[in-house]
């Protein structure tokens, strides 16, 4: 696997009226990574993805595959593809018309490959999008993605409006049939629990700035959750957890860089889920901001 930098952001800023959507955002996204952008509403996730796709101009330094996205968008589209929402395909188009449209706008799209993939489904090429089930729309989107020879795939809330079964199917097929270890994927979604199993790296951001950027392997080594047995809660508190929360009537302690053997003697230990870690880190960041 290569280590080439696919997206390099340094001090990227974007302001709308009085709101700093991006406020000095930094990022290194390398070839072969599947990186999740995690943040609350208004954190700047979609703004950054739009900047990566060349849809808006930003301040600071931003390079995507060696190109300045806003200045070189036509050239960039030969190497990048994106999905923002699988529920917004034009309902009046037939499947064939959708494929013809994508062929017209993306130079690296192979319509023969897309039609071959769709031939394995129940989707008929003359069917209009409005007659397709949500599951079929997922399959259609995946067929389009897998038929584009792109170096970078950008996903912004790609499964919005789909139910749990189809959301899981989307990511499962994406990883099994698209990702080959050389392509790079940048994902932003509120359904964090559904993507953490496919991510290699994560960036927590808030108010347009990076709160944390780590590989999943690094997070799993650095952070641990403890669910104490019996009356071990006081001993757990004495080990200086960075966060304490209640879960189904049971106290859960989160630790950073704490010896696993010490924790295991007190109860059940495991790495935290990304969503739980994000909430804890955000609370910690908020408290440190209040103190400063």
Description:
This protein folds into 2 domains: 5-207, P-loop containing nucleotide triphosphate hydrolases (Rossmann fold), CATH 3.40.50; 218-291, no CATH class. It is built from 11 helices and 13 strands. It has helices spanning 45-52, 73-76, 95-105, 111-118, 134-146, 164-177, 192-195, 216-222, 233-237, 260-264, 274-291; strands at residues 5-16, 19-30, 34-38, 59-64, 80-83, 152-156, 184-188, 201-206, 209-215, 223-228, 243-247, 250-256, 267-270. The protein has a 6-stranded mixed β-sheet with strand order 5-6-7-3-8-9, sandwiched between helices. Helix 4 packs antiparallel against helix 5 (134-146) and helix 5 (134-146) packs parallel to helix 6 (164-177). The longest helix is centred in the last third of the chain and has 18 residues, at 274-291. It is globular, with a radius of gyration of 21 Å.
Summarize the structure.
By secondary structure, the protein is an alpha/beta fold. 33% of the residues lie in helices and 29% in strands.
Task: State the share of residues found in helices, binned by percent.
Answer: 25-40%
Q: Which spans have pLDDT < 50 for at least 5 consecutive residues?
A: none
Span from first to last CA? 42 Å
Q: Helical stretch count?
A: 11
Structural class category = alpha/beta
CATH class of the largest domain: Alpha Beta
Largest sheet: 6 strands, mixed
- CATH homologous superfamily descriptor of the largest domain: P-loop containing nucleotide triphosphate hydrolases
How many domain units? 2
| CATH A-level architecture of the largest domain | 3-Layer(aba) Sandwich
* Major sheet: arrangement of strands: 5-6-7-3-8-9
Give the overall pLDDT as a whole number.
88
């Amino acid at each position: 696997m290569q280590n080439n930098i696919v997206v390099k952001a340094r001090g990227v800023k974007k302001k709308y009226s009085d709101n700093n959507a991006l406020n000095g955002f930094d990022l290194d996204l390398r070839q072969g990574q599947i990186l999740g952008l995690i943040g609350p509403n208004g954190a700047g996730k979609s703004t950054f993805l739009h900047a990566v796709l060349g849809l808006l101009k930003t301040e600071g330094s931003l390079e995507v595959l060696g190109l300045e996205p806003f200045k070189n968008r036509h050239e960039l589209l030969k190497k990048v593809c994106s999905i923002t929402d699988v529920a917004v395909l034009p309902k009046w188009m037939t499947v064939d018309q959708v494929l013809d449209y994508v062929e017209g706008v993306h130079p690296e799209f192979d319509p023969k490959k897309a039609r071959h993939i769709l031939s394995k489904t129940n989707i008929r090429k003359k069917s209009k999008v409005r007659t397709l089930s949500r599951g079929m729309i997922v399959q259609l989107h995946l067929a389009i993605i897998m038929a584009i020879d792109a170096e970078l795939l950008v996903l912004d809330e790609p499964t919005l409006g789909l139910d749990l079964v189809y959301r899981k199917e989307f990511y499962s097929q994406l990883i099994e049939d698209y990702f080959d270890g050389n392509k790079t994927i940048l994902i932003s979604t509120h359904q964090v629990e559904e993507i953490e199993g496919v991510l290699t790296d994560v960036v927590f951001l808030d108010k347009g700035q990076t709160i944390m950027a780590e590989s999943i392997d690094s997070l799993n080594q650095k952070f641990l959750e403890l669910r104490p047995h019996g009356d071990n809660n006081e001993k757990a508190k004495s080990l200086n957890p960075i966060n304490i929360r209640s879960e189904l009537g049971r106290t859960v302690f989160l630790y950073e860089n704490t010896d696993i053997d010490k924790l295991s003697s007190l109860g059940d230990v495991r790495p935290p889920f990304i969503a739980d870690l994000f909430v804890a880190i955000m609370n910690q960041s908020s408290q440190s901001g209040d103190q400063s």
